[in-house]
């Protein structure tokens, strides 16, 4: 993966991280999404799902053999030890699959999209990180209306993530997303031009 430019994209819940990565996909850039990979590694009959069921009991499986996410969340939500046990199973599997997908991506550069890119030290897999930035009040409003989740739960998720200031301090690029989607598309196009140049420079450096 050393010759492939990897761009991290992150942002707090409700920031519009996925909206930005969709704009990059329109520009034919491959996006490896941590949330999607997390679902893929627990597909029916996968080794990871089998391990999770052995650890937490067969009742975390639906009749279809799929993971009952609501049930699993219920089990680990208020039990820190169980949460750590689940993370010890899931995180290495997710990380390995993300690395595999990044390595096999067929575009000049590839995006790694993850809400907890800094918290889980996934930025070590990237060359640059883009932070999608919105005020906390807008995060709360967007996330609660999008997910039909109580604001208290959204606030708890926000509290578990890095603060807006801390994320922005670590960012290589900050994309404000408190305006129209057209502005987001324009910013994606501008960044794409920069990243294509960075990708070409990296290839030259590796070749030399």
UniProtKB/TrEMBL annotation:
ATP binds at residues 14-19. InterPro entries: Depp_CoAkinase. It catalyses: 3'-dephospho-CoA + ATP = ADP + CoA + H(+). The keyword Signal does not apply. PROSITE patterns: DPCK. Catalyzes the phosphorylation of the 3'-hydroxyl group of dephosphocoenzyme A to form coenzyme A. It holds the Pfam family CoaE. Belongs to the CoaE family. The keyword Transmembrane does not apply. Pathway: Cofactor biosynthesis; coenzyme A biosynthesis; CoA from (R)-pantothenate: step 5/5. PANTHER family: BIFUNCTIONAL COENZYME A SYNTHASE-RELATED, DEPHOSPHO-COA KINASE-RELATED. It is found in: Cytoplasm. This is Dephospho-CoA kinase. It is an enzyme of class 2 (transferase). NCBIfam families: dephospho-CoA kinase (TIGR00152). GO terms for molecular function: dephospho-CoA kinase activity. Its EC number is 2.7.1.24. Keywords: ATP-binding, Coenzyme A biosynthesis, Cytoplasm, Kinase, Nucleotide-binding, Transferase.
